[in-house]
Structure formats: structure tokens, C-alpha cells
Amino acid sequence: MNEFRRLPDLAVRNLGGSVVHANDEAFAVRENLITPGPAVFDPGSFGPKGKVYDGWETRRRREAGHDEAVVRLGAPGIVHGVVVDTSWFTGNYPPEAAVDGVALDGNPSVDDLTGAAWEPLLPRTAITGDTENAFAVQSTRRVTHVRLRIFPDGGVARLRVHGEALPDPALLDALGTVDLVALENGGVVTGCSNLFYSSPNNLLLPGPARSMGEGWETARRRDDGNDWVELALAAEGTIAVAELDTSWFLHNAPGWATLRGRTGAGEWFDLLPRVPLRPDTRHRFVLADPRPTTAVRLDIHPDGGMARLRLHGPLTEQGRAHLERRWTAAR
């Protein structure tokens, strides 16, 4: 597995991504590109326009050129890798693809995007059909939108844009108390004991989970240990309220949980002592001794599933300065 694929998909729909433009979607609509989960296929499914595909598919070109789609990232940030997934497209996939990025403030129009100065993230590259074509990206620039170009035409099931979110420090300043571990604010999963059923990145998605499948769930343990996940905060902050949400987990929620924190490479300290958890419940805890924190470790006992983890609080002065430096360097 490519290491970058452990980072969140900044383009996925349930993080707020949107396909804002495509020059053609004759056979299958552009919105499918950022649908969560793998593409599905029904060999007997045909519609008025022909075979129904769970992806984006353009008509057969009869003139020179290429097709393209533009995605607004749900969380702008620095891209570390892309996946051009052609699952189920076997005789109708594009033989080559390219991905570009751009950073534009506000809510640019399609005309603004069309005329923007795009920079390559993935140069024009050969891809294969019915394959998750994964490519590492070497970039230090923050982007708000990505453009997928296919040569000359064809179908792509999914576009995954893996990276680190980098929010505008001025936005977090205006909000004051924020979720310091939210993906859209720059929270990152740095370690996990088990992701058998689903990714721990789901813990940090915006909004409430809409099903058990939108949370993090581990395999059943058959030993005396417990499962855990470690996370880096957006920047150093002081956690005032922790929310441990087991919504939708009825018979497989953890029995107990603890939360620890640390600053830099220092020793771990207790944020939340071992507390019992209830099924299908949003647990909110006011922390007794908030301290400057850059990383957290959530231990669940012994195993099970959680929908969301929220860690609310303000950035410290040091955290704000660090975030400002990252923001400036990536512009």
C-alpha cells in the first residue's frame, strides 16, 4: 500500500468535496468521482444512454483534445498522492491522465477556474483499466481545487486526493474555539492498532455519522490487549471538551475509553481517565486540567467502533504561530 493512502482523501464528498465542472459527462455523471467507497458494477444494468457505470464517463471523441473535470477539495491542503481509479472500466478507460492543482481564495466561478494558472501535481502519465492507479505527488504548495485531465476520453470511477489539510489561520482565529483534531482543520491520524472494518480517518470527518459504516471499527480482540488510535492536532492547542461519539454502534461499542495527550516529543499525560461508554451515544466530557497539547492517543477497551472524535479548544500562541508559518510556506 502506498504510504500516502493512509492520509485522508481531501476530495471525498463526505468531507465537503464537489465536482464543480466537467466538459463532458455523456455516459456517467461527474459527481461519481468523489463518492465515498469503492465503485460498484452491475453487468445487467443499462439505461437510456447505454451501460450504467458508477464513475465519470465521457463520449468517444471524434476530434483532437482531451476531457477534464475540476474538483473543489472539501479541505484545502497539501497533496501527497492521487489515485485515478478505473475500476470496472475495461474497454473504455483513458490510456493517459494528468492531475493539476491551484489555490484560489473564496468561491471561484467556473470561468475563474478555467482561466487559472494550474500547476502539475501528476504529469501526463499512462494508466491502465480496471485498476487503482496510485501515484505519489511531490508538492509543498497548498491547493483548493484539482483538475483531472484524461487523454483523449473514457471513464474514471473515482479520483482520490490524499494529503494534509491546511486551513487558513485567519479562519481559525475568527472561530476561536475549534475542533483541534478535525480533518478540515488539519488533524491527522498518525497511528492505529487496527483498521479491519474501516479507517480511523472517519473519526475526524465533519458532521454526524449517517451509519455505522461511517465510523472506525476494529476486529474482535481475542487477547488481553486493547485498540487505540494516535492523532496529531492541527497545531498546539488546549483541549477543553472531548466528545467520544458511539452513534450507530449498538452492540459493538467499546466498553471504556481513555484519552491521553502530549506536547512535542514529551511524555504522555492523562486528559480523560478511563470512563465507561454507552452504545449509540454522544459522550461529552469537560476536561479537568486542560494543558497545551500537540498529539492525542485514544484507547478503547477492549475493541469496537466509534463514529466521531471531537476535541474542542483554542490554539495556543505557539500553535497559532506554527500554523501561520506552514500557511505562509505553502502559498
From TrEMBL:
Record bears the keyword RNA-binding: no
Pathway the protein acts in: Nitrogen metabolism; (S)-allantoin degradation; (S)-ureidoglycolate from allantoate (aminidohydrolase route): step 1/1
Keywords of this entry: Hydrolase, Purine metabolism
Location of the Allantoicase domain: 16-165, 186-313
Record-linked Gene3D superfamilies: Galactose-binding domain-like
EC number of the protein: 3.5.3.4
Protein name stated in the entry: Probable allantoicase
Organism listed in the record: Pseudonocardia petroleophila
Name of the encoding gene: alc
